[in-house]
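Input for the complex:
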Amino acid sequence: MTFFSRPICIVALGSALAATTAFAAGHSEKAVADAVKARHAQMQMVGYHTGVLGDIAKGERPFDSAMVDAAAGNIAALAKLEHATLWLEGSEQGAVEGSRAKSEIWSDAAGFTAKFTDMQTAALALVGAADQGAVGAGMGALGETCKACHETFRGPKN
Amino acid sequence: MTFFSRPICIVALGSALAATTAFAAGHSEKAVADAVKARHAQMQMVGYHTGVLGDIAKGERPFDSAMVDAAAGNIAALAKLEHATLWLEGSEQGAVEGSRAKSEIWSDAAGFTAKFTDMQTAALALVGAADQGAVGAGMGALGETCKACHETFRGPKN
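Predicted:
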């Protein structure tokens, strides 16, 4: 027994270390898939609220300052959501179905966060917009922040 | 022409008033359907984050204070989203596909907002949870707030 116990222990320890490393660096397949779905829900909500503002800018909905402020405030809140739960390592495009997240999201986390801060700033600038024209102008600036992030951190269509 | 112009004007004015009233009280069919989808995305995100916390409470994910704080903070932020864009009048159950919103959401708007405030408070209480047990306890309290709102303001399954 003593003769064999050492290599068995080393193998067992090696497996335990490998499992721990995988756990620390990544997440379960389900956890990663769920995170991607939650990000899509986040983007869906951003899209909904930019749609409300876009409709107001185009005159397809009446200008309503309470609605504008709520839409802009909600976009800012969505831009401010914490990344730790949403942008799990191992959830990049190719690693999980539906993801278009580029690896730069993790290699340049500060740059990625800055894009969300830009979106938040542009959204908050729309709060208090005085009329349809102001919403249109603010929407242009907001749209630029969406585009800037997508160009840098979003991969091609799946 | 003068003889006919008055009734025509009255009819036209009547139509314009009717259209304006419908527009002010309600929203386009598409606007209402989009709001319901956005609410579902909001609830999906809340569900995702409570799932993360639930997994930690059950020991299915390792306790990680950064993850707990992010999940709790995001739930609080989602609970705080402005209602004006999401809970459009005319988007109650029966009026639009997929909705389970009870009419009490609009007849008791203050009570409805209070439920979201309760959720926010319970979520924020989880920030800084010291260990798995604390997450479990906090999750119990958070779950109660979900249940309380659903019991009062959510209709039966469609």
